[in-house]
Amino acid sequence: MALTYGFFDSVNGDRKYSADDISNYFLKLISNGVFATPSNAMQVQPSSGMTVQVTAGWAFINCKWLNNSAPYLLTCDAADVAMRRIDRVVLKLDPSVGVRAISMYIKKGTPAASGATPPALTRVDGGVWELSLAQINIPAGTTEITAAHIEDEREDTSLCGLVTGLIDQIDTTNLFQQYNAAFNQWFDTVKDTLLSNTLVRSYQGFYTTLDADEDVITINVPQYNYALDILNVYINGLKLVEGEDYTLNGAAGTITLTNALEVIGTPVEFEVIKSIDGSDAESIVSLVYQLQILVNSVNTRMGGLTFMKVTQTQYDNMQSHDANTLYVIVDAV
């Protein structure tokens, strides 16, 4: 059993320290990986042809650091004519006496007719240690690397990871953009699935105002169950937001508008989304609907204004005009 410690002033050369002594000071303070600030540090991006670039940034491997001060270009070997290949962009620490360096290179994968896999990372305690910045998917015949061919692996702690320390703060801007893009793709898929497959069925109903200043409107959809179903309300083709534009009186089968409809003959459209697969499906649909509200409230409102399409005659015949409504004059409603 041995004890190591440091650092103390040397007296007559009795305290001499090696590079490892200095580096190991950070062993319990900083983890392996790419420094997380800025969010695109050491990111693999397409350049031209079969060349990619690794953006500027810092990395840390087994207490040794690397500073890439400018975009670093790497070129993949030519694609196979018949088979797909997956390469990796790798940081390689080689502490051997003959090398003592950190390099950045493309680790070439093996072409395969199906099921191509990326090359394994070399990791030897006290020896060569590799981190993967990204995979590069190279289909047969590829002549140019695009963003679609690159799979970022910096955030995967088993392959690379983001450097964290006692006082480090992570810039999540780039991560959020990736997660946001993934979420939007998921949402579009789920929304289309829920609204087009067997989970839900929609019903429409219509009402036309008979008097001026009507604010209590009957929901003309016999199938509507206020305890389970989702209700969408439209006036002049514009979707209303519950809690802002109206309140729901489910038991009575009506809605109460925040702003009464002054024009006789104003069309009100109702859409009921009804689950046909039970409460679990209804819960999923409700989640999607709540997400849609965020989008719809942006689409239908600007700075607190509600948009309403009216003809010039309807506008002139109004007894008063709501300060929170932007009236759009059209030839016909």
List the defining traits of the structure above.
single chain, alpha+beta, four-stranded antiparallel beta sheet, 17% helix, elongated
Task: Explain briefly what this protein structure is.
With 333 residues, the chain is α+β, with helices and mostly antiparallel strands.
The secondary structure category is alpha+beta
Helices, by number, come to 4
User: And the CATH topology of the largest domain?
Assistant: Triple-stranded beta-helix
Biggest sheet record: 4 strands, mixed
Please, what is the average pLDDT? 79
* Poorly predicted sequence stretches spanning 5 or more consecutive residues: 195-199, 278-282, 298-303
**Main β-sheet, spatial strand arrangement:** 5-4-1-11
| Whole-number total of structural domains | 2
Q: What report would you give on this structure?
A:
The chain is an alpha+beta fold and about 325 residues long. It has helices at about 20-25, 175-195, 280-300, 310-315, and strands at about 35, 45-50, 50-55, 55-60, 65-70, 70-75, 85-95, 100-105, 130-140, 150, 160-165, 200-210, 215-220, 230-235, 240, 245-250, 255-260, 265-275, 300, 305-310, 325-330. The strands form six sheets. A four-stranded mixed β-sheet has the order 5-4-1-11, with no helix packed on it. Strands 8-7-9-10 form a four-stranded antiparallel β-sheet, with no helix packed on it. Strand 7 and strand 8 form a beta hairpin. Residues about 195-200, about 280 and about 300-305 have low confidence and may be disordered.
